[in-house]
Amino acid sequence: MEAAGDSAGARGGLLCVTGGSGFIGSWLVRLLLDRGYTVHATVKNLQDEGETKHLQALDGADTRLRLFQMDLLDPSSSMRPAIEGARGVFHLASPLTLHTQDPEKELLEPALKGTLSVLRAAKDCSVHRAVLMSSKSAMLPNPAWPADKVMVEDDCWADLELLRERQVQGTLSKTLAEKAAWEFAEKEGLQLVVLNPGTTLGPFFTPSVNTSLNILLQLLRGQELELDAVYTGWVDVRDVAQSAIVLYENPSAKGRHLCLASMERLVDFADKIADMYPEFPVHRIKADKQGWLMRDKEPSKKLIDLGVRFVPFDVTIRETVDCFRSEGLI
Ligand SMILES: NC(=O)c1ccc[n+]([C@@H]2O[C@H](COP(=O)([O-])OP(=O)(O)OC[C@H]3O[C@@H](n4cnc5c(N)ncnc54)[C@H](OP(=O)(O)O)[C@@H]3O)[C@@H](O)[C@H]2O)c1
């Protein structure tokens, strides 16, 4: 069999992870070190201990992890030093935020230009395979996609006009970035495979709470969620990191991969959290505004066929809540 990534039997070698300091990135770095790889991880600011200390504390980090400074918004910040010599690149670095002052500058530019710069460096450094962390947001919402039609990942793209109209800039930026990545890969002959995770939850060892974890935190604190345009279901962070590795290591993995433990509406999510945690003032959502979204217990068939098994909802939620408690956040 052709070795597209490193086959499971031949682990090791150098890999680069951009956005290694983040919620998903830190889990990916951790799992890669555990699997024997040497990792070059990028962080925005090497002087900021909040971005580096939790990575340097990982098992194997002292000998097999090297951190590089890389800012997608800084044109003088080169991607090459971190990527040089790597057999594979996982591109995760991207601003993840629901609210911005200047979406063009804060979201679109780093997502789009940043992705292309990383892929350009990957191509120039003869990287064997690149894994792009896109999002389920690059697939949905798409009103033209029948709600009862099972998702075919490679065909289903979020509707750009609708995203512009609703001003969901984060979703727009991820969709444009993924489209540009596919164009680049095809034109330049770069081996690319894409992961499209949903709202990612789970235990964290980053010193701060990112945007997706904050959704659960807000819910537990009794705040109302207005995410009808973006929420399509959750997935455990360890499954996202593991899926990215499976895509890298498995030569048969091709195209786009929806990564959701279950596809569900926001109303379902809030109800389940309210049922699990009656001691918290969870706001149940009364009006289901997500008629466009099919409910599906197995939306990630492509990943399941590659051997990925998803952590159950109550395990993910309890372990996330335990982390919130131990950090004194609730
Ligand atoms: N969490 C989710 O629900 C979810 C769902 C679908 C897709 N994703 C995608 O998964 C990836 C990782 O997200 P995450 O959940 O781990 O978010 P996160 O915790 O906010 O991490 C984002 C990472 O990107 C880095 N980054 C942001 N802006 C940057 C810039 N201008 N230059 C260089 N690096 C920059 C951050 O670096 P600093 O730590 O230095 O700021 C951090 O390492 C992103 O591509 C995101 O779009 C996430």
From TrEMBL:
The keyword Transport does not apply. One of its GO terms (molecular function) is oxidoreductase activity, acting on the CH-OH group of donors, NAD or NADP as acceptor. Keywords: Oxidoreductase. Pfam families: Epimerase. CDD domains: FR_SDR_e (cd08958). Residues 16-255 form the NAD-dependent epimerase/dehydratase domain. This is NAD-dependent epimerase/dehydratase domain-containing protein. It comes from Miscanthus lutarioriparius. The lineage of its organism: Eukaryota, Viridiplantae, Streptophyta, Embryophyta, Tracheophyta.
